[in-house]
Every structure is written in structure tokens, then in C-alpha cells.
Amino acid sequence: MTVSLPLVFVLGVVAWAAIKFLGIRLWVAVVIALFGFWLSHTFFAPAIESGTRSGVDVINGTRD
């Protein structure tokens, strides 16, 4: 059985768990999210996307 979840949903669950169980303050999570948003508009974005896709492919066991 294959379950498909968007990476944004998984990261949202991780953020919620960090706030709930690790005691991370909400404003810290917001700052981290904003940093990611601003980072996506830099020249690092293609490398981050490629690395993320490669990591997800390794976890899923898919090969091209």
C-alpha cells in the first residue's frame, strides 16, 4: 500500500510536534518558516530543491 503525503504536511506535523512536545516557542517556528521562505528566493533554491528531491527519492526507494 502506497501513501502519498505532501512534504509541506510532513514538515507541518514536525513543527507542531516540536512546539507541543519540545517546548519550541511559536515565534521561533514562524522565524524559521520565514527564513525558509526568504531562502527560497535566493540562488540556493535549486540546490535545496534538488537535495530535497534526492532525499525523498532515497527514502521512497525510487531510482531514475
Protein described:
Helix content is 70%, strand content 0%. The chain has three helices and no strands. It has helices at residues 7-21, 26-39, 45-60. The radius of gyration is 14 Å and the shape is flat. The chain crosses the membrane at residues 27-45.
Highlighted features:
single chain; 64 residues; flat; 3 helices; mainly alpha
> Could you tell me the number of beta strands?
0
Strand portion, in percent? under 5%
What level of helicity do the residues show? over 70%
Shape summary:
flat
Radius of gyration: 14 Å
- Helical element count? 3
From N to C, what is the helix and strand string? HHH
Q: First CA to last CA: what distance?
A: 21 Å
Any low-confidence stretches, pLDDT <50, length ≥5?
none
The helix-and-strand class reads mainly alpha
* Major sheet characteristics: none
Question: Overall mean pLDDT score?
Answer: 85
Transmembrane segments: 27-45
Keywords: Membrane, Transmembrane, Transmembrane helix
